[in-house]
Amino acid sequence: MAGVWVIAEHRDGEFRKVTFEAASAAKKVAEEMGAEVTAVVLGKGLEAACADLGKYGVNKVLYAEDDAFEVYLVNAYAGALAGLISEGQPEVVLLPASMQGKELGGRLAAKLDTSIAVDCTKLAVEDGRLKATRPIYAGKVYADVLIKSSPQIASLRPNVFDADEVGGEAVVETVSVTPGEIKTKQIEVLKEAEGKIDLTEATIIVSGGRGMKDADNFSIIEALAAELGAAVGASRSAVDAGWRPHSDQVGQTGKVVTPNMYIACGISGAIQHLAGMGSSKLIVAINKDPDAPIHTKADYSCVADLFDVVPAMTEEVKKLD
Predict the structure, then answer these.
(1) Assigned superfamily of 199-318
(2) Is the pLDDT confidence value at 137 over 80?
(3) Where are the alpha helices (DSSP H) in the chain?
(4) CATH number for the domain formed by residue range(s) 4-174
């Protein structure tokens, strides 16, 4: 079963977009290595959906069903996956650099006595080995990483790799695994508001910073986001002020995002914030301070009062409907 393996991520009975991105990236790596792609799915009630992973280049799915896998718990997952990987001996293991993937990837690398390249933005094959490119020093430099040990593990930054549908259906093989020792107990699941877009998977994000002045003013951000079908983000200063929940924070100590468009409203552009959104494909900055660092990073800058600009943008977007 050697080859390229993908650790699938799911929520509420559905595979997440980051899983499709990782599968598509795995297919390209596998083609260069002359190997096949295997997805590993730990869950409950997901067997019928597993074959659909073939649409994204997966040849085979190893599916393990257990009550312990219904909700993600790192000890249960890490122990089971380490056992499967040790037995299957894949050359490469890929997983999303999501909140779950960041926690799980490090545990797996430790259990398997190997290394992991985290938050990768590019993959290639060099002399039959995986070469991963990842940002360092808050995104100021990109490093090429070659992992000498085996398996080679890499986590992939969400929204960077395309989820390409290639058609087809994966072969699903049910496997028996032993969950790792569960050392925590789930008491309650607190879900985001219905319909709220996940920041890490959003294609458009509208964020507010200290320039929003107070929590109530985020309503103008929310109005623009609603018209654009975007997610709402915030800088650390806005979160620290209690204007937005920590789940909305973008930056080095929040979430790293890579949307197609990032609109920064009243955000100065401290290096910690830029580390979380600097790889966005298009950056729009609205800040009345002409010397704000965000302007040097932006593709389009508007040196003006956001309370004049943002409502005007919302009205113009409405006209496009």
Answers:
(1) TPP-binding domain (3.40.50.1220)
(2) yes
(3) 17-33, 47-50, 74-88, 99-112, 218-228, 236-240, 271-277, 294-297, 306-318
(4) 3.40.50.620
